[in-house]
Amino acid sequence: MSNEAAPFNYSPDYHDLVGLIYDAISHSKGFFPFIHRFTRVFNGDSACFGIYDLSTGSVVGAWAVNIADEALKFYAEHIADSDPLLKAALEADEEGNPSFVASNLDIENVDAIRSQTPIGEFMGLLHAHDAAGAIVYRDKSYVVFFAMQRSSNRPSFQKEELAEFNVFLPHMSRAARLYTKLSSLVDTAPPAERAVLQDLNRGILIVDASFRVVFRNAHAGTIIANTANIEINNQGLVSFSSGALARSVMVSLSNAIRASAEGREMPDTILSVPDIDRTITVTISPLLTSRIEPSEGDHDHKAGAIVGLYDWSIRPRIDPDILETVFNLTPCEAKVAAMLANGGTLSDIASKTYRTKETVKSHLKSVFRKTNTCRQAELVAILAASSELAQITPSSPHDMPARQPRKHI
């Protein structure tokens, strides 16, 4: 062991970080504890594991720390397909020498690039000046890229530091490979619940923490097969032909997977996918696993996201008058609920009803209470799946059967 490496190798931080890397394989929080610790130990301001689909030149997800949604979307739109730091790291990997590279050390004319390309604006969004990164895992066009950024009030990266980072790279690569393989094998729901998902009259996808689809029901397969703007590629990644939609889905999946890893609720995302002669509504929610008295330190890995697909061309449009009768809604509440169920976003509804977004949210809150729901995706699912409502005219909302308490998968 060289004298240069000895002080670092015996640092307690080294052993803690290596432990966190391998803990990520089975820990419910995945790589987040490692990313946080690595960033603190090595004076970073932000960092992430970015998941890329090189076949489309796009980033499909990110395990990010201190990177805002706005910055992720900007990166996906303007930089992902031409990131010079990613290209430098890919070159090193393809040459058989996987290693960390730094913007201030390995990119020529970096100052000119920052001033003449969107990279300068992206780094500004991160309040960053330098970045270092490496290819952690690659499976054909599926790539995991780790990057950490530093602000201008911190020292630029040095070659000696990159050598230290490289000590972790083999560990990161092994853990990422195992994590990705094991994620795809996770039984995301018991057989009985998977059977229920299979029988639903709407599309359901379950995306694991490596952003790959690990379950799709028959209805989802039909919708995707008949929709030009959505596909699941041979790497198991969901892709959309619309760049703006793809970026929104990427950020929403990233947030949902993080919320799932942390075991917390988050607002659902509802997006519209225009097709040739119809509209597909996409809902994205964290995968939350019910546990009976989980033990201390329970690391059961179930992080992921649930993606719902609703094809309005094969469903009757929901009539607000029916909703008034069935759920005892006011005319305004019924109109908001119907527009939401028929594929509208909150912004669309506010614009078309000449109300503020806050007013629409207030109506929606009342609809949640009266329908015994608490999430947009759940409400949309109930109304969308209830095509029989068009034939039901009960004399009182109490004639309707009481809804059972909702359960997480």
UniProtKB/TrEMBL annotation:
SMART domains: HTH_LUXR (SM00421). Pfam families: GerE. PROSITE patterns: HTH_LUXR_2 (PS50043). Signal peptide: none annotated. InterPro entries: Sig_transdc_resp-reg_C-effctor, Tscrpt_reg_LuxR_C, WH-like_DNA-bd_sf. Residues 322-387 form the HTH luxR-type domain. This is Helix-turn-helix transcriptional regulator. The lineage of its organism: Bacteria, Pseudomonadati, Pseudomonadota, Gammaproteobacteria, Pseudomonadales.
